[in-house]
User: Fold this.
Amino acid sequence: MSDNSYGKLFRVTTWGESHGPCIGCVVDGVPPRLELSEADLQVYLDQRKPGQNRFTTQRKEPDEVKIMSGVFEGLTTGTPISLIIENKDQRSKDYGDIKDKFRPGHADFTYMEKYGIRDYRGGGRSSARETAMRVAAGGVARKVLGDSIKITGALVQIGNKKINPDNWDDGEISNNPFWCPDAIMAAQWETYLVEVRKSGSSIGAVIEIRASGVPAGLGAPIYGKLDADLASAMMSINAVKGVEIGAGFGSAMLRGEENADQIRIKDGKPHFKSNHAGGILGGISSGQDVVVRFAVKPTSSILTPRDTIDAQGNETEISTKGRHDPCVGIRAVPIGEAMMACVLADHIMRHKAQCE
Assistant:
């Protein structure tokens, strides 16, 4: 299997399977003499790990990260940083009844078509379990970014239930199990997801990731645009089916005078009167907040029987048992933050290499 790496100067390679003994990653290109410890990374992994509330999979994984290389006496050495997490709570037997069936919505069919072999235990490499290492790598990326850049992720829509932007409160995001910045909508989501879970189904979601403090000048036209790399990074997350920057698809409904982010001078500096561009113009950051949203499809593993075929080409039906998220988008928030951090770290290093 190729293409397990992402980034150019700040480069992340992940490895491992959902039901293997462990998962891991190698982060290459990290500058030397940055303070880094396992505790620095664990805080982000604790946000993503499963089994923290009744609205996520009940698989119990501590997700304790270990630094295997690249750090000496608490400082990065400039050599590759290797990280691993042991899998503790695999239940491979949950998948024994469906090992020869292709789960609709999953990569079972396409993996078999491409490779002629697949790990049916939780999807193997295609499982969202892999994203734990992205979150760990994102913790390293935040060390490269420093404290001047703040990354905030939030769930802004579940099914057809959207937050009210006027109720957005960063402080509320950590007060509920949904990463929701709107306290009123968080209460509605709780009732809604209980109904979805009891029906044996699942629901999709939209996540928004904002990065403030991003300097102007990041990104390289034509084929290294910041928004293109962000879109690629977010689309690489499991179950993501759409990405937009700034106003995104909503810009198709705007007139030119509405969409253009007008510029004035405020306190001696350029000031944009709006941010429909999502902080990126011509593939280069403008100094405004970088805003990305991505849509996550409903969890494909559901109890409701669905039509499918098996490996022998027979028509059958399948009901996926085991421990699954009724809304996988909930745990995608820290993953989106991590991918934002990795992309920005890579582009900052690329910008410095050429322009400073």
In short: The chain has a mean pLDDT of 92. Helices lie at 38-48, 108-115, 131-145, 183-198, 226-235, 256-259, 332-355.
